[in-house]
Design brief:
The chain is built from 9 helices and 6 strands; from the N terminus they run H-E-H-E-H-E-H-H-E-H-E-E-H-H-H. The chain has about 325 residues and is an alpha/beta fold. The protein has a 6-stranded mixed sheet with strand order 3-2-1-4-6-5, with helices on both faces. The longest helix is centred in the first third of the chain and has 28 residues. It is globular, with a radius of gyration of 25 Å. It starts with 11 loop residues before the first helix and ends in a 64-residue tail after the last helix.
């Protein structure tokens, strides 16, 4: 009988590192699983096209989806798709080698969108808008060719918040990046499984998993992107005010149209008083129960600020 080979015991530092990695993996798996469940992203029999760019986000998305596929109560297929846009110096061998090693079905699509973008966009202008439109059109076509029912993109929570602020600052719209949406022609379903995942968790996970990251040479060096400016703002807030990004993201899931200003989303003209409680009505004039009078000379109990006062503030 062959002798049983025992693995050497982990030292304290290795045990701590393993514990932290397992904890991070579990957090990402739960976040992706919750997003899939909350938005009905994946159904039995789905054939999902996982768009793999070679960046940390798409690598993480594929990794977590592969992990969930093994334990999911339903059957679904995954096929990785990379769009080789013919950027100079693009390492064409990296993704095929990685995917072959994983044993994941994949397709590499070669389309020279790089030349189109460089020809059309003036020097010094941002290229992301045109590049994104060209890329999305190609991916829709490939999804049809492969018979895919869903298209999975690697946008995460921070991307969604960045889009919210970009639309407010530069588009005058209260609009973000939904975890699930249908294309404008109605034929394709786009999902974002990383919608609940924090970018800093993804960065750490990608580092620990040692993914073969491929930088985007087309737009990665554009320092004048407004998205970069907004991203820096969010990272600064996250550092100085822990929990602020989580609170902002929760606000996207608790929208109160009656407290905004869009007459197309709420019938302000038809708004009337009534004798019964009004859902989401103004609470500023509700009776406020004050705490008991503190003993003379005591400073305890003097705060009567109600959390609802934050709606309007003091003028």
């Amino acid at each position: 009988m062959d002798a049983v080979v025992q693995k050497p015991a982990l030292n304290d530092a290795e045990q701590k590192a393993k514990y932290n990695f397992d904890k991070l993996t579990k957090r990402l798996r739960h976040a992706v699983g919750d997003a899939i469940d909350d938005f009905g992203m994946i159904e039995a029999g789905d054939r999902i096209m996982v768009c793999l760019s070679g960046g940390k986000d798409s690598y993480t998305m594929l990794d977590i989806l592969l992990s969930l596929q093994k334990s999911a109560p339903i059957d679904f297929e995954l096929i990785a798709v990379n769009l080789d846009q013919k950027q100079p110096g693009f390492p064409e061998h990296v993704l095929p080698a990685y995917l072959d090693k994983l044993g994941v079905p994949y397709k590499i699509v070669e389309e020279d969108t790089y030349s189109i973008v460089k020809r059309v966009v003036p020097e010094g202008k941002t290229t992301c808008g045109l590049c994104s439109r060209l890329r999305r059109g190609i991916l829709y076509r490939v999804a049809d060719e492969l018979g895919c029912t869903k298209i999975a993109l690697g946008h995460h929570r921070d991307d969604i918040l960045e889009t919210l602020f970009l639309n407010m600052f530069h588009g005058g719209r209260l609009k973000a990046m939904p975890p699930k949406l249908v294309s404008d022609d109605g034929r394709h379903m786009v999902i974002r499984p990383l919608a609940y995942c924090r970018e800093k968790d993804i960065e750490r996970y990608a580092e620990l998993r040692a993914f073969p990251i491929i930088p985007c040479n087309l737009c990665g060096s554009q320092t004048n992107l407004q998205r970069v400016v907004v991203g820096d703002m969010l990272r600064d807030w996250d550092k100085r005010f822990p929990g602020r990004l989580e609170s902002m993201f929760r606000s996207l899931q608790h929208v109160v149209p009656s407290h905004l200003a869009d007459p197309k989303r709420f019938d302000f003209k038809g708004l009337k008083t009534q004798d019964t409680p009004f859902e989401d009505g103004d609470t500023a004039f509700d009776a406020l129960e004050l705490p008991p009078q503190p003993p003379e000379g005591s400073l305890r109990g003097i705060s009567i600020m109600d959390s609802r006062d934050t709606q309007d503030g003091c003028h």
